[in-house]
Design a protein that fits this description.
Layout: H1 3-14, H2 18-25, H3 29-37, H4 44-53, H5 59-64, H6 76-115
Helix pairs in contact: 1-3
């Protein structure tokens, strides 16, 4: 399996979305899409970002495809827990964005009234 495929597999095991994975690693969603499609190869910088964001991921597995995905015997339950926690963070961020957008809309209305 190519490193690009391992990154895609890691996304599904850890965050379930490119957006969450992007937020966790700092790798843009555009780059992740290019990696997923095979357009871009995985850079050393991306590997470093992934390993810093997910310290339990085995570097040997990520780079060479040898061994288990996770070091220290992390199991699927732990990976699922991480995924659930990241999904909760993503939902909370979405709620905050909605609240901010609503406040911006109200403020724009007030500004329009003041300018009239």
């Amino acid at each position: 399996m190519a490193i690009n495929n391992r990154v895609v597999q890691l996304i599904s095991k850890t965050t379930n979305s490119k957006t969450s994975f992007s937020q966790a690693t700092g790798i843009s969603t555009v780059i992740l899409s290019h990696i997923s499609s095979g357009r871009n190869k995985v850079s050393l910088t991306a590997v470093e970002q992934i390993l810093k964001a997910f310290p339990k991921v085995s570097a040997e597995w990520l780079v060479l495809g040898k061994g288990q995905m996770f070091r220290d015997g992390i199991d699927n339950d732990s990976a699922n827990e991480i995924s659930e926690n990241l999904n909760l963070v993503e939902l909370e961020m979405h709620r905050h964005r909605k609240s901010i957008d609503s406040k911006i809309h109200i403020l724009k209305g007030l500004i329009d009234e003041l300018n009239s």
